[in-house]
């Protein structure tokens, strides 16, 4: 039987058969300014000639799957002829859900997967549990790990011991990639150019130019002192016009014009402290009025809530996943801050996988090939006989 692994994130779906490679596809629909009447689904985004003013229709709100109409359309597209050609009767599916998901959402998901699509068997699991499975598979001698998953809607910190999640240690921070992009849109709109409708473009700007500062206050001071060419943080970003410039890019430093006058036709964003002030919200959400801990304090708080004899194991096995882990300097800053907060006698080690976005999917792929996979899934016969009860019993691992 084929196994389809679907890490169903709020921004992208990571999907593929367990024998094949993963595909990362937008988990949403789009409408564009130019063709208002047409709705594009998932990777049809590539067909949009002019993605400026692109309007996203997301199945997730605040990290939870609430718009089933949109999600069904995305899944129909992914499971259909153009993409994965899923033979439901002979396919098992591993699908992710957020921590502390609502029962009503879980029941809707069971119904759709078993009754509408009619998958042969289903495993509903947290993405962090798949990451932990991946980690323990690569480091079988380790007993514990702490998964820090910073994605689109939230950042979750989840401790695992021998592949079991320790619920009392799970922490959630309401800061994710969506908030960072929105904040960058606000800063640019206030200082330079109205870009509040340009989510797609500004998200690209964020990914291209933002980084995590190692010493935030020092860097801010340095920016105030150094003007003009001495300012190594300042960068000029050429915005795409989607006719001659398909994708935005950073101007080489030697081409930067301090007078601000460029050749006609190029629209320039000049970025300075925004480059590191935006990702700083992961460390200090209170900077924009979110009264919560940053990631380093939340990690320490999570570990402190667990038995003391396990603390050393957790500090030494911290795994970073999710799209925000791709910011340059993120791992180093986190490790440095944890070193200053953790007890001096405990070593701290933070691991960033080569591909933090697909790390949970890879864990799902390993799980699909593990000998006890058949024990942890719910088959369609089980579901038809026992309903939601059997899913609740098996999936709350």
UniProtKB/TrEMBL annotation:
<dbReference type="GO" id="GO:0005634">
    <property type="term" value="C:nucleus"/>
</dbReference>
<protein>
    <recommendedName>
        <fullName>Actin-related protein 6</fullName>
    </recommendedName>
</protein>
<dbReference type="InterPro" id="IPR043129">
    <property type="entry name" value="ATPase_NBD"/>
</dbReference>
<dbReference type="InterPro" id="IPR004000">
    <property type="entry name" value="Actin"/>
</dbReference>
<dbReference type="GO" id="GO:0005856">
    <property type="term" value="C:cytoskeleton"/>
</dbReference>
<dbReference type="Pfam" id="PF00022">
    <property type="entry name" value="Actin"/>
</dbReference>
<keyword id="KW-0206">Cytoskeleton</keyword>
<keyword id="KW-0963">Cytoplasm</keyword>
<keyword id="KW-0539">Nucleus</keyword>
<comment type="similarity">
    <text>Belongs to the actin family. ARP6 subfamily.</text>
</comment>
